Amino acid sequence: MKNVCTTPLQKSCMRAIFLGLALGALGLQSMAQSIVMSSTTSTEQSGLFGHLLPAFKKATGIDIKVVALGTGQALDMARRGDADVVFVHDLPAEATGAYVLTDRGTWLNFKNRADLKILVEGDAKLFNQYGVTAVNPAKHPHVKQADAQKFVDWVISSQGQAAIAAYKIGGESVFFPNANK
Q1: What are the Cα distances from residue 156, in Å, to 25, 37, 132, 161, 164?
Q2: pLDDT above 80: residue 132
Q3: Which of 32, 43, 62, 148 could connect to 85 by a Cys-Cys bridge, CB 3.0–4.6 Å?
Q4: Which contiguous run of DSSP H or E holds residue 105?
Q5: Which of 150, 177, 155 lies closest to 165, judged by CA?
C-alpha cells in the first residue's frame, strides 16, 4: 500500500482516523449481547459453565456473566431482578455428623479427598435436579428477557443437552441431562 500522507498534518489526520476507527470497533464490542446469570456455586465450581457457555456463545453470539452464589442467594438475586436468568438446583438435604453430602461435580473436582470415600450414590432420595428459568420481565422490566430465553431454550434443546452430557471430569459424567423427561 502506498503511503499518501506526506505532510505532518496529513499524518496526524490519518492517525486520528485510525484511532477513531479502533475506538469505534471497541465500542461495538462493548455493546455485544450479554446477560447476567445467577447460579449455584456447584455448577460454577464443577467447571460446567467453562464447558457450556463457550458453546452457547458460539451458537448465539451472547456472552453470559455468571454470579455464583448459594442456592438461596442465587434465587434472591433473581427475585430482585439483578440477573436475567437463574440456574440452580433443588435445595439440598442437610449433612449431619461426620458425613458430607455433595454433588458429583464438586466431588470429582475436589482434589484433596484424603480418606473420604463414597458411601451412597444413585439413591432416588439424593436426586439433585437442576433447572433454568428466565427472570420474569413483568416483575423486572429491565431484564434482557429475550436473550435470557435464548439461553433457556438452548439449554433444553438437543444441542444444549448434548453439551451438558459431553461434560466430564476425569472421564466421568458429571451432569445427566433430562429436559425431555
Answers
A1: 34, 16, 9, 6, 10
A2: yes
A3: 148
A4: helix 104-109
A5: 177
